[in-house]
Amino acid sequence: MAKSPDQEHPCKAFGWAARDKSGLLSPLCFSRRENGDEDVTIKILFCGVCHSDLHVAKNEWGFTNYPVVPGHEMVGTVMKVGSDVKKFKVGERVGVGVIVGSCKKCESCQQDLENYCPQTIFTYNSHYTDGTKTYGGYSDMIVVDERYVLRFPDNLPSEGGAPLLCAGITVYSPMKYYGMTEPGKHLGVAGLGGLGHVAVKMGKAFGLKVTVISSSPKKETEAIERLGADSFLVTSDPAKMKAALGTMDYIIDTVSAVHPLLPLLSLLKLNGKLVTVGLPDKPLELPIFPLVLGRKLVGGSDIGGMKETQEMLDFCAKHGITADVEVIRMDYINTAMERLAKSDVRYRFVIDVASSLSQ
Amino acid sequence: MAMSTENEHPVKAFGWAARDTTGHLSPFRFSRRATGEKDVTFKVLYCGICHSDLHNIKNEWGMTSYPVVPGHEIVGMVTEIGTKVRKFKVGDKVGVGCMVGSCRSCANCKEDLENYCPKMILTYGAKYYDGTITHGGYSDIMVSDEHFVIKIPDNLPLDGSAPLLCAGITVYSPLKYYRLDKAGMHLGVVGLGGLGHMAVKFAKAMGLKVTVISTSPNKKKEAMDHLGADAFLVSRNTEEMELAMGTMDGIIDTVSAVHALLPVISLLKTNGKLVMVGAPEKPLELLAFPLLMGRKMVGGSCIGGIKETQEMIDFAAKHNIVADIELIPMDYVNTAMERLSKADVKYRFVIDIVNSLKPS
């Protein structure tokens, strides 16, 4: 008979889980494995609330295995290290992001692209190498293979740094891979949420001109005055959209709802690149003529490998980049999810796990 | 009163034109400008039939103004050059492709990307600098600005080299731009027509492994025995397609009908690139998950600049690459168009202008 979540493993753990597609979260007693030779046990201090957590809690992508404890933007302190652990010691501040395992042998893993390994193990809602379910960071502690743990730079605050572990790497990786880092070039950022606002900050740190492309005119002042964007384009303003045609070298599209691609493609110059990092649950319509006539491309990107994630954290520490967060208590999570569904957050909720998660 | 096409220019010309959306072509008298100081005039010997010609004569893209003399894969022999022409002399074998003009001053033109110039002038059906409409290569003579004329190397047969001027450059350019030109890479080619068969030949010459993806199983033998493809996938055979998932570095998609992208994208490895050179007129469905999960991309490409077109022709000459053609007399052209619409040609019709275009 299958063991219950709290009996699968020897170490008691506690968190909040969704149990059905209402997505409502509530306390769950479960368990974590014993700390293995290559493992690090981490007491979780903070955990960011990613839009993916909402998609999975409500089974919007169709592959949720309930009960699910979400959370893949966690920062904590090392409590225990396995005998073979080289990179971390007890007391250090570390982070865990979207993946906690991979095959370690394939071409992708060997190129530090664990995120593209066909056997990637996600921090939650996946199956670990021992067959048991993985549970995420809306919980008190986690046990992770050293390879998938990030060192948190000293000058990066935990609350503002936690969202970098998913939102940060999700925009940093394609900016590097697709060559969107040439100073003076013009970057468009479509969508101003968790991903979008970090993309603006990184774009400015790379020396780019940044235009935010948004459906919400009321985000303009913030975008320009607080985030440092150079300009703001409202998608429903035909005159402004027309004036901006063919002006952008690249666009990062962070929008996770289904939306038309043609207006975005039209904003690109010749050879322009539209990189989509949002995951709408239904297909998008891709017009081919603009790609052919302007030698444009639409590419995808999915988080980043461990080496690049560490590089990104170090880059953010160097440039003082953190996410803009609203810190919440664990028991606020369901309200936070409702607000997140309406994009009512500037720009990431972060759960103060250590102070507010209690049985 | 507007001049008739016969009188608007001083040099008499003769060709075949479509006059309405039936696309039916018939003899047509018109005129060409006198050879200007930077112009090259040549006697047309051969002209390839591109699928775009068919789209155009039937106004399938909604931009045709009749009468239209199609043809943008034109090869001939120089008969006269302007006083400032430096690159060509009388008797040279030359070609003209899809463009006969551009602004020559924008950033794209300065980077030898005339094909992306916003004021690029198409070889037929477009307005030239003097306000007259351009007429293409289904005709006896051509006059073109030297800049847009390509030298055809001596060792290339002229009839087989005509299709290089559109089909050839259309697949060569993206192989270079998207860096799908390294020996040992695995390239997929979707569609085995005029563009597709050129892509197979160029890619093999670059040292790539090539798999053809087609709806027609009966093209397999030709693809492998004659064109040199390494493998052939029938796109409706889900088992074959599944086995090939995640095996290709890049795919050139030459199919201009609406078709499903997901099975094609699935064939790509991580970081794989799908390049569209056919242009379906309706948008295609794009699923975000497969694109993101494999860091894949879908890009487009449209012919190539003049410098690159010359580079492509020289590459073809070095590797003895020409198109596989069916040479036809001018008066077969309407039948050829019908057959082309059913993809019944291996793989390009070329009109034997020099031997069969006679004023009526």
From TrEMBL, chain A:
Its EC number(s): 1.1.1.195
GO molecular-function terms, A-Z: cinnamyl-alcohol dehydrogenase activity; metal ion binding
First-tier enzyme category under EC: oxidoreductase
Record's keyword annotation contains Transport: no
Reaction catalyzed: (E)-cinnamyl alcohol + NADP(+) = (E)-cinnamaldehyde + NADPH + H(+)
GO biological process: lignin biosynthetic process
Needed co-factor(s): Zn(2+)
CDD domains given in the database record: CAD1 (cd05283)
Keywords for this protein: Lignin biosynthesis, Metal-binding, NADP, Oxidoreductase, Zinc
SUPFAM superfamilies assigned: GroES-like, NAD(P)-binding Rossmann-fold domains
Pfam family, one: ADH_N
Subunit structure: Homodimer.
Family from the record: Belongs to the zinc-containing alcohol dehydrogenase family.
Protein function: Involved in lignin biosynthesis. Catalyzes the final step specific for the production of lignin monomers. Catalyzes the NADPH-dependent reduction of coniferaldehyde, 5-hydroxyconiferaldehyde, sinapaldehyde, 4-coumaraldehyde and caffeyl aldehyde to their respective alcohols.
Protein name in the entry: cinnamyl-alcohol dehydrogenase
Upper taxonomic lineage: Eukaryota, Viridiplantae, Streptophyta, Embryophyta, Tracheophyta
UniProtKB/TrEMBL annotation, chain B:
Annotated protein name in UniProt: Enoyl reductase (ER) domain-containing protein
UniProt domain Enoyl reductase (ER): residue ranges: 23-351
Keywords: Lignin biosynthesis, Metal-binding, NADP, Oxidoreductase, Zinc
Subunit-level organization: Homodimer.
Family to which the UniProt record says this protein belongs: Belongs to the zinc-containing alcohol dehydrogenase family.
Pfam families documented for this protein: ADH_N, ADH_zinc_N
PROSITE patterns reported in the protein's UniProt record: ADH_ZINC
Function noted in UniProt: Involved in lignin biosynthesis. Catalyzes the final step specific for the production of lignin monomers. Catalyzes the NADPH-dependent reduction of coniferaldehyde, 5-hydroxyconiferaldehyde, sinapaldehyde, 4-coumaraldehyde and caffeyl aldehyde to their respective alcohols.
Record-linked InterPro entries: ADH-like_C, ADH-like_N, ADH_Zn_CS, CAD-like, ER, GroES-like_sf, NAD(P)-bd_dom_sf
Pathway annotation: Aromatic compound metabolism; phenylpropanoid biosynthesis
Record organism: Eucalyptus globulus
CDD domains per UniProt: CAD1 (cd05283)
Gene Ontology MF terms in the entry: cinnamyl-alcohol dehydrogenase activity; mannitol dehydrogenase activity; metal ion binding
